[in-house]
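B., you asked whether I could sanity-check this one before it goes into the benchmark set. Here's the sequence:
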Amino acid sequence: MIEAAILGCVMSAALIFQAYRHEKERRDLLNRIMARDYAEYQAMKGRPPPKSTNFIKKKQAEAVNEDVRGTQSGN
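And here's what the prediction gave me:
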């Protein structure tokens, strides 16, 4: 009889733990779906976004910055 009660408690604890994990995973997946990109997803999690090492994006950003500086000084 005691074995059945212990087994019931262990099974209940396992179900509660599983429900908690599934809730946490669902929340994380919803955040991934709602995020615009990986950096925004990481910001939602409280971590800083990773540094971008994409050389194409760096060149485009530099060109935009130079263009903005050029139009501001030309006025």
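One thing to flag: Helices lie at 2-34, 38-44, 55-74. Otherwise nothing jumped out at me.
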